[in-house]
């Protein structure tokens, strides 16, 4: 179940919220897990081609590494993009997540907790009204309570975006 609200405060400022309840059912001796999920955010357009966004939320995800674990993830993200010379866009994305893992079966230990953050500057060029290309740099770091899962990495990439 989920409810979504959008509110246009002014022509340049929007607020949104999404909230609900997630029901997870498990096989075996574990009962149904019920959890609130939500996202709240704001988008500000100070002038044409510029967007400032701030969002926070909580979601439930399946573990990518263990069949018998699920994570509650709480996050805050703040992407910013600005047009420069009408066809060149500069962007900066920053964010933080905290993931708390729990077991989906009895007698399974799930004490893991992760703190993950990222920063991603980018430059995109609008080729046509519906096609753009760009480059980005992504630095990510994860500090996990289980050191095996801690990591940091740096990525450089090229992308193309098709809008329709």
3D structure, described in words:
With 164 residues, the protein is an all-beta fold. The protein has one domain. Helix content is 0%, strand content 70%. It has strands at 2-10, 13-24, 33-44, 51-62, 69-77, 80-84, 88-103, 113-126, 131-144, 151-162. The radius of gyration is 19 Å and the shape is globular. The two termini are 30 Å apart. The model has no long low-confidence stretch (mean pLDDT 89).
State the gist of this model.
The chain has strands at 2-10, 13-24, 33-44, 51-62, 69-77, 80-84, 88-103, 113-126, 131-144, 151-162.
SSE order, one letter for each helix or strand: EEEEEEEEEE
* Proportion of residues in helical segments: under 10%
So what's the overall shape?
Answer: globular
* Rg estimate, integer Å: 19 Å
Strand residue percentage: over 45%
Number of strands: 10
Instruction: Please work out how many helical segments DSSP would assign.
Output: 0
Number of domains in the coordinates? 1
Determine the oligomeric state from the structure: single chain
Characterize the main sheet.
10 strands, antiparallel
Low-confidence stretches: none
* Class from helix and strand fractions: mainly beta
N-to-C CA distance: 30 Å
Mean pLDDT: 89
